[in-house]
Amino acid sequence: MADIKLACDLIKEQLGELSAVVAKSLARSSGRTLHELVRDTSQTPQVTKETLLVLLQHSCVVAWSDEDANESQNQSAQDFTQREKIVYEIQVDRILNRMRFPRFLVHILEELGPDAEAMVETFLVHGRLSFAMIVEKGVAAAASGESSLEPAQIEAAALQLFCDLVKERYLERVPLGFAARPKPLATKATGGRGRGAAKAGSHAAAQQEAANVAAMGERAREQAERFTIPPEFSRRLAAVSTMLRQGHSEAEAAAAGCAASSAAGGGNKRKRGAGEMMGGEMASSDGPDDVLWRVNFDEFNRRFRHKSCVALVRQKMGGAAAAVLAAMLRLSRPHEADVREERSPPLSESKIHAEVLDVFAPGDPSSPTKADISSTLDLLSLDGNDLVTLTGEGPGGKAYCVNMKRIIDVIRIKEVEAVVRERFGAPTCRIFRLLALKGLLEMRQIADMAMVPQHATREYLYRLLKAGYVRLQEVAKSADHAPSRTFYLWRVELLGAVEQLGVDLYRAASNIRGRLAYQMEKEAELLKLLEQVEAARRAEREGRPALAAPVVTPAQQQQLKHLQSVVQALETSLMRLDELILIFRVL
């Protein structure tokens, strides 16, 4: 599939050839044991283990405990005996998010500043890290001259920044390592009428219900711990803020924070071994500094989804409506359990008004009044696209909810129409829009309503059919399905068109990345020459002895300009494709 190919290309580019070989092997099955990976990749057991460690460190692979694994297989090494129950499974969705790393950093820079960007970049580069590892990297940077802060000050600043990122849900705890594979909850829809279904009131049905309750409780516990800041960190922050309020210096406040943590039992730190980091830990660790954390891709995608919703409303209804919708999405963000949440919880008019005013400075004459916000909410709720719904009235006034799924569907329809217009022309786009609005139509009806000649309509429809954007349905008058006694009806299936466009986007992104790699490999000598020139200039600025800078001829300068224009065009196309992939496949 196109998404798996793109994921393997990303792994090869960012983590190396060996990681890509293991990823391709895992992508060919629903899960493999270490013994199966060694046999399929033809690598040594040690190399396979180290490659798996890299993939697990970057959360590209997840490890499940499989209790039903066959322990009686003929194994070539004694070390496989204890690992045959561990099944490794590739995480294609998380790998594809690696395309979005530059957008993540730009968003964090705009939202929380350069220090937060630096910390998130550290997590993106190194994968799973504990807070102790973050502090070690900061101290190492200070020792190399990149920072003038003392180690205690570095730890206090990193702790404040780290807690802010966790509160905003940009960072999350790494899930429990080597846990049992989560099973879908048994429902009437999944097993209610089959031959193996449990009969209502029977002992099997009671066991099934108990298993469902236990699974739901375990998932709720993991979700609650996912963004929980350790109490020791809160004590450190409280001690630092108290010392600063009392007029002490930053160094004294940082030292007091470390002392408070040590007194509470948070000072015992140690480094983790490779085997401990392979699975990750959520519940059990030696201390809060040793808990492993990682970047929460879902939160970034949720923020991008909200931005897309606000951009659509701004385009349709203006800046005032966009500001109100942005305030509603900020209020609903903590209550969204999934990136693809369909609707926000009901939000009262008074809460929305307070959230909108929170953006403006006190006494700002440009801040909207409550009447302005009420009229904007009424305008949003009366829109024909059903972007916002009036759910009732309560103590805080009228209650509204945002139909996020409907807004994303409107965006998808607009983007599909734009793609159809770009690939097939304006008449074809008119036919596509007509079918999306009217439903089932015959070719003659389409030609008349779209004002397109019938012979051209036939050609346009078959182009759309070949590309997978329309469907053809036969309605026979008789059992022999004779063409003269059969209606041929054309229709647009939006879900099918969205799915097909998503596949096309993945394929296009993979092709562009391949072209970009080819261009860089083709001009490798020129790029090496430029590196030598830059190294000579840097040595001259720093006053160090260096070799003479090589001469760049006018032909090479022209070649460099051409390469820069090609690379810029390809990277711009990749950024636009990533925005569309986010709309059609992630949100």
Q: How would you portray this structure in words?
A:
The protein is mainly alpha-helical and 587 residues long. It has 25 helices and twelve strands. The chain has helices at residues 2-15, 17-27, 34-41, 45-57, 92-96, 101-112, 114-126, 131-143, 151-167, 188-191, 203-226, 231-245, 250-263, 274-279, 297-317, 319-332, 349-357, 370-381, 404-424, 426-438, 443-450, 454-467, 494-522, 524-542, 554-586, and strands at residues 61-65, 86-90, 129-130, 171-173, 179-180, 292-295, 347-348, 388-394, 397-402, 441-442, 471-476, 486-491. The protein has a three-stranded mixed sheet with strand order 2-1-5. The longest helix has 33 residues, at 554-586. It is globular, with a radius of gyration of 29 Å. The two termini are 20 Å apart.
Strand order of the largest sheet: 2-1-5
What is the tally of beta strands?
A: 12
Low-pLDDT stretches: 69-83, 189-196, 265-285
**End-to-end Cα distance:** 20 Å
Number of helices: 25
How would you classify the helix and strand content by structural class?
A: mainly alpha
Average pLDDT confidence is 81
Shape: globular
Helix content: 55-70%
Radius of gyration: 29 Å
Write a short abstract of this structure:
This protein is mainly alpha-helical and 587 residues long. The chain has helices spanning 2-15, 17-27, 34-41, 45-57, 92-96, 101-112, 114-126, 131-143, 151-167, 188-191, 203-226, 231-245, 250-263, 274-279, 297-317, 319-332, 349-357, 370-381, 404-424, 426-438, 443-450, 454-467, 494-522, 524-542, 554-586; strands spanning 61-65, 86-90, 129-130, 171-173, 179-180, 292-295, 347-348, 388-394, 397-402, 441-442, 471-476, 486-491.
